[in-house]
Amino acid sequence: MRLSTVILPIHRWSEGQKYWRRAEDLGFHAAYTYDHLSWRSFRDGPWFGAVPTLTAAACATERLRLGTLVTSPNFRHPVTLAKDLITLDDVSGGRITLGIGAGGNGFDATALRRSGEEPWTPRERADHFEEFVPLLDRLLKEPSVTHEGKLYAASEARNIPGCVQRPRLPFAVAATGPRGLKLAARYGQAWVTTGDPKLYEAGTPEQSVAAMRGQISRLGAAGESVGRNVSEMDKILLTGFTPDRPLQSFDAFVDFAGTHRELGFTEIVLHWPIPDSDFAADSAVFERIATEGLAQLG
User: Fold this and answer.
1) Is the dihedral of CA 10, 246, 3, 267 positive or negative?
2) Distances in Å between the alpha carbon of 174 and those of 22, 111, 165, 235, 238?
3) In the chain, alpha helices (H)
4) How many Å apart are CA 179 and CA 158, to the nearest integer?
5) What's the CA gap between 173 and 107, in Å, rounded?
6) What digits encode the pLDDT tens for the residues 36-46?
7) How confident is the model at residue 67 (pLDDT cuts 50, 70, 90)?
8) Which residue pairs from 51-55 have beta carbons closer than 8 angstroms and sit at least 24 positions apart in sequence?
9) Cα–Cα distance between 57 and 183 in angstroms, integer?
10) How many Cβ atoms sit within 10 Å of the Cβ of residue 207?
11) Residues 6+ apart with CB under 8 A from 261
């Protein structure tokens, strides 16, 4: 099992760079950031772009893997995103992972849209995702791509020299529904979940574990449907959205990590503590978890 963190892009770089450097010093496997135009309670405060932030982080670190959790089609086009990702992979020396999902109905769905256009329905988001991922896969692997789909088009889109990582940088596909799970099984090097959102406020840790066990089972079925054994895939849990409180104490994390390792998760992602927010936590406990937590699992 690996341990990673997610650093929200809420700090000016003069301040923010220290978090990415500290993440590397603490030995985290990866540091991710959110790819949103704005997000929930942080909407009225500072919020910087994911791609420039990751570019700066790549220049400020040497070993740490970097990536998004997650990018979505809500305000991205595969052609321009591919160009940004190839550049990021080059600048970082091949340390980028793309976390990608279908997106939601929050600020990203309304801040940027064509005049008169309504935000996409869940079905429309799934439709876009289903075409977005295969096209992005091609754009990152092929030097020239032409595509004329129902929702996206590309005409001789050039991406030379391609990714440092071959055949392309890894996808970590966030999905829980049947169409998304098939995409994860077909195109993902990893699968991402935040658990069952319906259980966040009213559920129990035991119910959350049962829900994720069901998700992993459905991922396995999706893999069978596309001819892939998903046991080879990394399984990433982005914490902070389940009834558990793994950052409450060192022992709480060890229990949490052990339980979810038994489920089959290979990577746990913790939010870097942010005071006076949903991600508030004791920094000393967080750093002890980062340096000692996984060693306690044996």
Assistant:
1) negative
2) 27, 22, 21, 10, 10
3) 13-26, 50-60, 78-92, 107-111, 122-141, 178-187, 205-225, 250-263, 283-288
4) 29
5) 21
6) 998 989 999 99
7) very high
8) 51/84, 51/88, 53/9, 53/13, 53/16, 54/88, 54/92, 54/96, 55/87, 55/88, 55/91
9) 29
10) 16
11) 1, 297
pLDDT band at 138 (very low <50, low <70, confident <90, very high): very high
DSSP letter string over 87-149?
HHHHHHTS-EEEEE----SSHHHHHS--TTPPPPPHHHHHHHHHHHHHHHHHHHH-SEEEEE-
Distance (Å, rounded) from C-alpha 43 to C-alpha 32?
A: 19
Residue 268 three-state SS: strand
Q: DSSP secondary-structure letter at 40?
A: G
What is the Cα–Cα distance from 139 to 267, expressed in whole angstroms? Answer: 27
Distances (CA, A) of 40 to 34, 113, 208, 269, 278: 12, 19, 23, 19, 11
Rg of the chain, C-alpha, whole Å: 19
CB neighbour list of residue 39: distance below 8 Å, 6 or more residues apart: 8, 47, 106, 107
Q: With the C-alpha atoms ordered 88, 92, 97, 103, is the resulting torsion angle positive or negative?
A: negative
Among 32, 21, 113, 119, smallest CA distance to 71 is for: 32
Q: 30-33 and 65-71 as β-strands: parallel, antiparallel, unpaired? A: parallel
- pTM of the complete model: 0.96
Residue at token pair 């790819």: 35
Here the contacts of 199-207 (C-beta below 8 Å, separation 24 or greater) are 199/242, 199/243, 200/241, 200/242, 200/243, 201/243, 203/242, 203/243, 204/243, 205/242, 205/243, 205/244, 205/259, 207/243
Question: Which of 16, 141, 31, 161 minimizes the C-alpha distance to 87?
Answer: 161
Structure tokens at 258: 């052990």
Can you tell me the mean pLDDT for 256-283?
97
